[in-house]
Write a structure and sequence with these properties.
The chain is an alpha/beta fold. Helices cover about 45% and strands about 15% of the residues. The chain contains 16 helices and eleven strands. It has helices spanning about 1-15, 35-40, 45-65, 65-75, 80-110, 115-130, 150, 155-160, 160-180, 190-220, 245-260, 285-295, 390-395, 415-430, 480, 485-505, and strands spanning about 220-230, 265, 295-305, 310-320, 325-330, 375-380, 400-405, 435-440, 445, 455, 465-470. The chain has a six-stranded mixed sheet with strand order 5-4-3-2-1-11. Strand 4 (about 310-320) and strand 5 form a beta hairpin. Helix 1 (about 1-15) packs antiparallel against helix 2, helix 1 runs parallel beside helix 3 (about 45-65) and helix 6 crosses helix 16 (about 485-505). It starts with a helix and ends with a helix.
Length: about 500
């Protein structure tokens, strides 16, 4: 038992190494093998659930350890409450691993091939993690392969879930080979044929789509965007004494972007350090800068609205042109504990980490913005970029470009900004549209419709990036049109296995 627990914990740690900042992507292709070894040597289903939970917990403890630091340093949580929240999240995430271990072990005990059931089951629980408990699809397995752009093209059919499926298929097939070589188990040639066939089809499709999309993009006109990375330290960001410094920094960067040919200038999330659309005058500095520079600007700012005598605060994005507010978007998918405290009446922790006055409220409409002679675009504020449904909603409404404004200053020099970056980039593949990212402290970047990062500004750098984004006519993508069909099929098959097991038990 101790040996099995150690093996699955090692597998979880190995999987964590495949993500930034380590980035050893090849580790993902073998990280499930210790878990498969433990599951097939353990006939008791409750123990199989424990093993799956330990695998997921070991991965999460390394992968999202930055949450603990953010809560203490910037959220001013007492270290004990921060530990409770962090370990609570680990416990919730481990439930998905436990479910995988339970279902995979049961299916295997009934003679169902692991190389079929394991990928289906893992994909099902990743999909569940995207939506249950407000959703936390952070670092799904498929994201570990973002640098392998050819395989990543599969995401325009299956979403990121298909890439996760592929990784688990390879793991299960390698495990079958290990059983033959070292454990004297019979070798099923069908496993190898299946694995090679799946990988070959995905590779050929990736090569074909890369060539096709790149050819379409090369003939599309360029539209120059200016991305401003002010690198305002989180520690002083909301101090009134630093407000003048923040506006002066962004005004200087805006003029620099204009000098390099930018036609639209993008500021990061909450880069305006004052409540917009209030009677206070501080926020109007953004209007003055827009008027002085003479170029439309997209700015991130906190804001509020009075609704039936109640004040609601929002994390917003405003398109400013000619010194006027033209479009507004209020963030729809908020960050638990960051922008609001769930169940605050049970655990009175105060307001969210990232708020100014009180918990933020969620917006209700995905806005499509437009500038003269420019593409239609929608804004994804920070965390929204890790939810595929948000991008699909934007592009479905007519957006030709996705703009992700971010403030990753909360996370300092941890893996979080790098992890956040790669997840946002996958949205460009799923929807076949470019995505630009403006981050306060980094990492700002431009992704083309193949998911390749065309340009970037490094972490912890104050700089301007002006880039000609090629916005082509709509490139058809199955995932954009039909959504999570692949994931839903996996969930359906997984539920069938569970239902069959319950019926058999009765």
């Amino acid at each position: 038992m101790i040996r099995n627990l150690g093996a699955v914990a090692a597998g979880g740690l190995l999987l964590a190494l495949s993500f930034p900042r380590w980035g050893f992507f090849f580790c993902a292709w073998v990280s499930f093998i210790p878990l498969f070894f433990a599951l097939q040597s353990e006939p008791r289903l409750h123990v199989a659930a424990l093993l799956g939970g330990v695998f997921q917990a070991a991965f999460a403890l390394v992968d999202v350890v930055w949450i603990q630091r953010a809560l203490v340093v910037h959220g001013h949580f007492h270290w004990l409450w921060a530990a409770v929240v962090f370990l609570g999240l680990i416990a919730v995430l481990s439930l998905f691993g436990a479910g995988f271990g339970l279902v995979a072990a049961y299916a295997s005990s009934k003679g169902l091939p692991l190389y079929i059931t394991a990928p289906i089951t893992w994909t099902s629980f990743e999909y569940a993690r995207t939506y249950f408990f407000s959703g936390f699809p952070w670092d799904l397995v498929g994201y570990s392969q973002v640098n392998w752009v050819t395989f990543l093209q599969l995401a325009d059919i299956t979403g990121i879930y298909g890439v996760s499926f592929l990784v688990v298929v390879v793991n299960a097939s390698i495990w079958q080979g290990i059983q033959y070589l070292f454990l004297r188990k019979s070798l099923r040639l069908g496993v190898l044929v299946y694995c090679v066939a799946v990988c070959s089809v995905v590779y050929v499709y990736g090569v074909y789509r890369l060539e096709q999309v790149e050819a379409i993009q090369s003939s599309a006109p360029e539209y120059s965007l200016g991305i401003l990375q002010g690198n305002i330290p989180q520690e002083i960001k909301w101090e009134r004494s630093a407000m003048e410094y923040s506006f002066a920094t962004y005004e200087r960067l805006a003029f620099e972007a204009k000098g390099k040919g930018a036609k639209l200038i993008i500021w990061p999330e909450t880069s305006v350090p004052a409540l917009v659309a209030t009677t206070e005058h501080e926020w109007r500095a953004a209007l003055r800068i827009s008027d002085n520079v003479g170029i439309p600007m997209l700015v991130g700012a906190p804001s509020y609205k009075e609704n039936y005598g109640k004040t609601n605060y929002y994390n917003s994005a405003f398109l400013i042109s000619d010194g006027m507010l033209r479009f507004r978007y209020d963030k729809m998918h908020l960050v638990p504990f960051g922008e609001y405290i769930p169940l605050n009446w049970v655990i009175p922790l105060g307001s969210g980490v990232a708020v100014l006055e009180a918990d933020y409220s969620a917006g209700r409409t995905m806005t499509v913005m437009k500038v003269p002679n420019g593409p239609r675009f929608s804004v994804l504020v920070c965390y929204e970029a890790i939810f595929p449904s948000m991008s699909r909603l934007a592009v479905g409404n007519g957006a030709q470009l996705l703009v992700n404004i971010v403030n990753d200053g909360w996370f300092a020099e941890t893996a979080a900004p790098y992890q956040h970056l790669i997840m946002a980039g996958v949205r460009s593949v799923e929807n076949r549209v470019p995505l630009v990212r403006a981050a306060n402290t980094g990492i700002s970047a431009v992704f083309d419709a193949t998911g390749k990062m065309a340009a970037s500004i490094p972490w912890n750098t104050c700089a301007v990036l002006v880039w000609g984004v090629r916005v082509s006519p709509p490139i058809w993508a199955f995932y954009r049109e039909y959504g999570d069909v692949f994931a839903v099929i996996c969930v359906t098959l997984c539920v069938c296995v569970i239902a069959w097991g319950v019926k058999w038990a009765r």
